[in-house]
Amino acid sequence: MRMFLEAATGPPTIVLTAALVVLVCFWLLVAVRVAASDSFDADADLGPWGMGGVPVAVALSLLTVLAWLLSVGATSVLAAFMPPDPATGLLRLTVPVVALLVAWRLTCLFVRPLHRLFPDEPGLSPLGASDRTAPRGAGDESRNAVRRAPHDGALRTHSRAA
């Protein structure tokens, strides 16, 4: 237990431990409804980083937890099996960076299946409006409206005079 605490609060991993504490505080605020889980969605787009499709808080939470677990685990293994010398100290400094890169790739893999739980656009409600207007281009002169039949889900096109 002592080795685990030293690994979690040691010099290189303490940065990830602090991020984990902030993460736990954020999710506690979400649990008591002081903050919303989608608070950061308007501020950041994680699509270019391969973590799009889920709320930013979920993706970064997963990244932080994975990086912390990998860093503490690797630091514990280094402390248990490597002698305390300068080479081990340099290797220990690189552990959080490598853990963060590995956690990023794992987060990208884990986010893909989670995308189904967080759809980008909600589907049409069965009790929703029956009139939907199709998007029109600049040269669209027919002004067609797309109507949804109330029971069978089929789309029917009706022309309107301009």
Features:
single chain; 162 residues; mainly alpha; 4 helices; 3 strands; 7% strand; elongated
Describe the structure.
With 162 residues, the chain is mainly α. It has helices at 2-9, 14-31, 56-81, 86-114; strands spanning 131-132, 144-148, 155-159. A hairpin with a 6-residue loop joins strand 2 and strand 3 (155-159). Helix 1 crosses helix 3, helix 2 (14-31) runs antiparallel to helix 3 (56-81) and helix 3 runs antiparallel to helix 4. The longest helix is centred in the middle third of the chain and has 29 residues, at 86-114. It is elongated.
Order of helices and strands: HHHHEEE
**Tally of strands:** 3
C-alpha termini separation = 77 Å
The shape, in one word, is: elongated
Biggest pleated-sheet summary: 3 strands, antiparallel
Rounded radius of gyration (Å): 25 Å
Main sheet strand line-up: 1-2-3
Which regions contain 5 or more consecutive residues with pLDDT less than 50?
121-134, 139-149, 151-156
Class from secondary-structure proportions: mainly alpha
What is the average of the pLDDT values? 76
Q: How much strand content do the residues show?
A: 5-15%
Our count of helices gives 4
Helical content, roughly? Answer: 40-55%
